[in-house]
Amino acid sequence: MKSQNISLMIVDENKVFCECLASVITQKGFTVIEQFMELREVLNKIKAQQPDIVLININLPNNMAIELIKHISLELSQTKVIILGLSETESRLTILECIEAGAKGYISKETSLNDLITIIRLVYQGETFCSPQIAYSIFSRVAELARKRHDRLIPEFGNVTLREIEILQLVSEGLSNKQIAQRLSLSLYTVKNHVHNVLEKLQARNRLEAVNYALDKGLLRKTRLR
């Protein structure tokens, strides 16, 4: 199969490895712009050349690989990153970290040359490569982040009752405790008790603060107390 005219850069400290990899990739019809770059200049060179694919060794010093992935993903939307040097059986968390940073694929130490070429083509075509095991880990991670986001957004509303929300909504509309009691056919004492409880649960100092806080969290309709 004839390769598309795909341009690549290889970022790795091992000069021998880079030269061997570049030679093999070139024989497969790809264009290797540069390899074994000075790490201090690598980001500027990538920005200047804007290759289709950048192969980055995960084992660069000072967590540089992750930082490079983030910068490339944010600043060069057409350039895609593939990570080298991973061991899938040992580095699942590292793979997830790379993917979260913006990497579009990875090449493990166990990957064959034919698979490497296939992965480069897939990523160039806009597909994201990962094994079934990593795909499962990604879905698990997404679910975990969703749970954490939900917990961050509304942990304080877990024990607020529907009645308290209803009363707080009426408070937000400017009704007094007496008016709320009449509207809901409750005793004035019961309404006062509900208001006290919801203030305590939301850790609000007064009715206005409780209403504004609940509005900001999306718990009430937008009828702000004046």
What does this structure look like?
There is one protein chain. This protein has 226 residues and is of the alpha/beta class. The chain folds into two domains: 7-137, Rossmann fold, CATH 3.40.50.2300; 155-216, Winged helix-like DNA-binding domain superfamily/Winged helix DNA-binding domain (Arc Repressor Mutant, subunit A, Orthogonal Bundle). The chain has ten helices and five strands; from the N terminus they run E-H-E-H-E-H-E-H-E-H-H-H-H-H-H. The protein has helices spanning 15-27, 42-49, 64-75, 92-101, 113-124, 132-153, 162-172, 177-184, 188-201, 207-216; strands at 7-11, 31-35, 53-57, 80-86, 105-108. The longest helix is centred in the middle third of the chain and has 22 residues, at 132-153. 26% of the residues are buried.
What structural keywords apply?
single chain, 226 residues, alpha/beta, Rossmann fold, Arc Repressor Mutant, subunit A, 2 domains, 5-stranded parallel β-sheet, 5 strands, rod-shaped
